[in-house]
Amino acid sequence: xxxxxxxxxxxxxxxxxxxxxxxxxxxxxxxxxxxxxxxxxxxxxxxxxxxxxxxxxxxxxxxxxxxxxxxxxxxxxxxxxxxxxxxxxxxxxxxxxxxxxxxxxxxxxxxxxxxxxxxxxxxxxxxxxxxxxxxxxxxxxx
Length: 142
Description:
- The chain is mainly alpha-helical.
- It has helices at 2-16, 26-38, 40-49, 51-64, 68-88, 98-110, 112-118, 121-134.
């Protein structure tokens, strides 16, 4: 269940990470993207305009069984863990390297356990708590 859940966290954050182009104002862009993930009205507006974000949102809702509170918590966790990616993608001058951030997101999609190990104990606890609320992963339909 943990691996399945972690893959979804990465897939959730990835489409939304393009919401703001990071440049010299990378901290502000990160903050705005995190707010987008955490604010349902802003998120819904963005989802209507972005097909990839819409697919990620549908995956979240499928995983959470459509439960609004669990869906919101999953987005909140995704926003929180974006700090890990942004921190690892920082250039020496403090700006976030968008290309590096995208590479990391792709890397974490293929190795979610590595991403999990980089999270704080609090972030891991939130994931475990939400995983218990959601229950086992749905059966694969392959």
